[in-house]
Amino acid sequence: MDKPQFRYLSHPKLENPVFVEGLPGFGNVGKIAAELLIKFTHAKPFAELYAPSFPDYVIVDSRGICRPPRYEFYATETEKKHFIILVGDAQPSLEDVEAHYELCGEVLSFAEKHGCRFVVTMGGAPTPRSAEEVYVAASSQKLAVETMEKGAILYGKGRIVGATGLLLGLAKKRGLEGLCLLGATTGQRNDRRAAFTVFKLLMKSLGIDIKKDALERLGRKH
Fold it and tell me: What is the CATH number of the domain that holds 190?
């Protein structure tokens, strides 16, 4: 394999889906938040992406069967929104800048092909102590202000590394709108508390209500 390759498992019919990314990163906040979204919406995997720039190891399941690292794309729909959700095993090395640009470009082309015009990326923001705070960066001031009105704090004068930042930046250059939601975390462990806070703000920002009992069930699991 000398370039990224997609593999389709099915071909869902989606209308103007929101693209949501949650890949491994600082405190694994984005990945855990995306997994919460998958569980809440009962999303199903429909495509995979393999690339030579992923780390040189394999994932071994409980049956002893191995596979290379991959990105997985899930599809689902709620009463208000359709979604494509991206999760994965790993990202390319931070030093491999070209690979990051290539993969993010492939992912955005895939999202556009399936009708996505709005992108949400999720990750962790380094803080000296844990706090139930979510920071927002956006493709426009209007979106940033709207998200702040729902409880986010402006993430200003900083950098967002990896796919979480690059996807949003490249999406804007393609004329797409979007948000980046960052949960405050020390990053010393899988921060499920920060991820749950990001998930709740994601739902609020998209106008999706979560019943109290469903929220409590998700919270107990995380």
Answer: 3.40.50.10900
